Amino acid sequence: MIWGICVLRIDKLTKRFGANAAVENVSITIEGSAMIGVIGASGAGKSTLLRMINRLADASEGAIWYQDREVTHLTGKAKRQWQSECAMIFQQFNLVPRMDVVSNVLHGTLNRRSTLATLFNLYPTEDIHRAIDILDRLGIAENAPKRAEALSGGQQQRVAIARALMQDPKIILADEPIASLDPMNAQIVMDALRRIHDEDGRMVIANLHTLDTARRYCDRVIGMRKGRVVFDGTPEQLTTGVARDIYGAGAEFSEATTSTDIAALEAGREALPA
Predict the structure, then answer these.
(1) Residue 113 to residues 3, 108, 122, Cα–Cα distance (Å)
(2) Is 3.40.50.300 the CATH classification of the domain at 6-266?
(3) Is the predicted pLDDT of residue 107 greater than 80, yes or no?
(4) What is the full DSSP assignment across 147-186?
(5) What number of other Cβ atoms are within 10 A of residue 127's Cβ?
(6) Domain ABC transporter: where (predicted)?
(7) What is each CA distance from 8 to 11, 30, 217, 266, in whole angstroms?
(8) Which of 52, 129, 135, 157 is deepest in the core (most CB within 10 A)?
(9) pLDDT band at 255 (very low <50, low <70, confident <90, very high)
């Protein structure tokens, strides 16, 4: 599959915590707009990789390039600018529970607002309208005046996606965006991320909890094990043998493996019977 010109390049990226390497010598090139799924067992280094791309964590070695700009060592204003171009969505939503939904979405503009405007919670009318339009696009505009804590988990995750879109990012990084959701809300959230990719042409990189989700939604799947990339290919290439390489040679499951089976594998338990 051809994605066009080179956009994001990760070169021999490593992150160490003491003597342990959470991510080790990872090199990935993502060309053009793509929806990428990153899979692997708990502790494989998926979250650390995304946090380094977003610069929430510093790399121990290696480099991250976007277009012709190295972002690995950006500081101050330049780092904040990169983080606005590379929005992050978290498993636990990271909303302000007692704040209304539209204000949570407007927090996506904080990097470009003055300290005074932030202090007094002042937003331009056009930003408020845009926030409501984004909520409407995600099917939750009617919840704009409600407190975030009053919403279901799936609705809160869509608010978090709306906040990311307020940044008008070139890349969206989603760290286990559906791990805490029930199957129906998980599908709604993944449908929203895929639609954003398709309609906006934004790159989406998502750490995912299950093989079936990666196969269904992603153009490309990257498998990590013990901090290293052990698979990089299309969903069609994600065979049972490849899955065993990612999750461990002792894993027993078929091509029809369910989400529950993979969740068990990621938790270090034996797979359920087919």
Answers:
(1) 34, 10, 9
(2) yes
(3) yes
(4) BGGGS-HHHHHHHHHHHHHHT--SEEEEESTTTTS-HHHH
(5) 18
(6) 8-251
(7) 10, 5, 20, 28
(8) 157
(9) very low
